[in-house]
Amino acid sequence: MPKGRKTCEKCGNMTGPRAYMCPNCNTPFVFAVQSKERKNTRLIRNFNWRELEVGDKIKCAGGPYYVKGSDFIPMGYRGRFTVVSLDDNGIVGYSDKGGYCHIYMGCDKQCPETKVWKTKHKLIKLKPKMQRV
Known about the structure:
mainly beta, 2 domains, six-stranded antiparallel beta sheet, two-stranded antiparallel sheet, 1 helix, 4% helix
């Protein structure tokens, strides 16, 4: 099958990727269901991490890394976390999958003993959308 096409399971007709129904036999295509969380969550990208409060939900990626030769080894945290507390260098969070961690948000520097580069994590604040009445 060529890239950017999909095939109807009933009649085998090829159509464009955004079609909801087969133009030949009017069979609807099955789409993956979006989770309730994805539909009901607003993403806030630009915010000051020091203004986070206990209980806020965040999603993080990036962070500290180690370079050995041509290998780049990420050492930061990835995933969704609930804020437990804040300190001068970052956020103490609890993972949805279990376990506490310290999400580093301090200035960029390299540790002289371990040669690990400490860099800020990238954060997204997850906030529930307001329900319309």
